[in-house]
Amino acid sequence: MLETSAESRVARFLEELAQSRESALLVDYDGTLAPMRVERDRAFPYPGVSSLLQEIMDSGRTRVVVLTGRPAEEIVPLLGLLPHPEIWGAYGLQRLKPDGSCEMPPASEEIVQAMADAAQWVSELEYSNLLEVKPAGVVVHWRGLEDSVAARVRSTVLLGWLPIADRAHMTLHEFDGGVEMQMSGCNKGDALREFLTKANPGIPVAYLGDDQADEDAFHALHSRGLSILVRPEWRETAADVWLRPPEELIDFLLQWLIVCRSAE
C-alpha cells in the first residue's frame, strides 16, 4: 500500500491531470511495465498493462513514451500495441515513432571502433552468449548466473572495458544484472530534460522506472512532475512515490485512465 504522503502526492497529480487537456506518461520497460526476464525476448508486460496503455492513448489526452535502454524495435512485439506508442531506445538516443519512422544520430568512427573492441574482448573471454550490441553501446548480461560466476564475469569484463571506454570517452554503467558501455551524455535524464523543453509548459508529466538508470530521469523531473519507482522491494530513490508491481502499477494506470475518461 502507498503511504499517506505518497497517496496525497498521487491524488494531487490526478487532480492536475483531470484539469488538463493534455498530459504525458513516460515509462521504462524492463522491470517497470514488464518483469525482469533472463529470456529478454519473452519479457512481456504484466497482464493488463498493454490494454490499459492502449486505452490511455486512445483517450487522446495523454502522450505515451516508452523510454528504454533497449533498441526501440525490440519493444514493439513485446508491448503488442498497434500503432505502438513512441519508443525512445538507447536511453532516448533512438526515436521510433508510431508511424514506424526512426531517428538515430550516427555514431562516430571512434565509438564504432570502441564497441567493436569491447565485443572482441568479450568474445575472447568466451562470454559471447552474454553480449548484447546496441545502437550506442554494448552490454554484458549476467542475470540468472550463480553469484560466483556473475562476479567473475563482471571483474574480467570490466578489466578489458575500462581502458576502451576511457579511450573513446564512453561511460560504464552497471545495472541490476549487467554492465553497459555507452556513449557519454546518453542517459534517461538527458532524454527527459529534452522532452520537457519541447512539451507544452505546465502539462502533467509522470515518469515510471525501476533501475538505477531511471534515477537520472527522476532527478530531471524533480518538482516538474510525478516520479514513480516501480519495483517489488524498496530501495533509496529520488522518486516521489514507490509502487509494487503488478497490482499497484495496474491500479495507478487504471486511475489515470478513469481520469482521462471522466474529463472527456
List segments where confidence is low: pLDDT < 50 over at least 5 consecutive residues.
Answer: none
Q: Which structural category fits the helices and strands?
A: alpha/beta
Radius of gyration: 19 Å
User: Beta-sheet strand percentage?
Assistant: 15-25%
Q: What is the arithmetic mean of pLDDT?
A: 93
Succession of helices and strands: HEHEHEEEHEEHEEHEHEEH
Can you offer a commentary on this structure?
With 264 residues, the protein is an alpha/beta fold. It is 40% helix and 20% strand. It has helices at 4-19, 49-58, 72-79, 109-124, 147-168, 188-198, 215-220, 247-262, and strands spanning 23-27, 62-67, 86-89, 94-96, 102-103, 131-134, 137-141, 170-175, 178-183, 205-209, 226-230, 241-243. The strands form 2 sheets. Strands 5-4-3-2-1-10-11-12 form an 8-stranded mixed beta sheet. The longest helix is centred in the middle third of the chain and has 22 residues, at 147-168. The protein is globular and about 60 Å long.
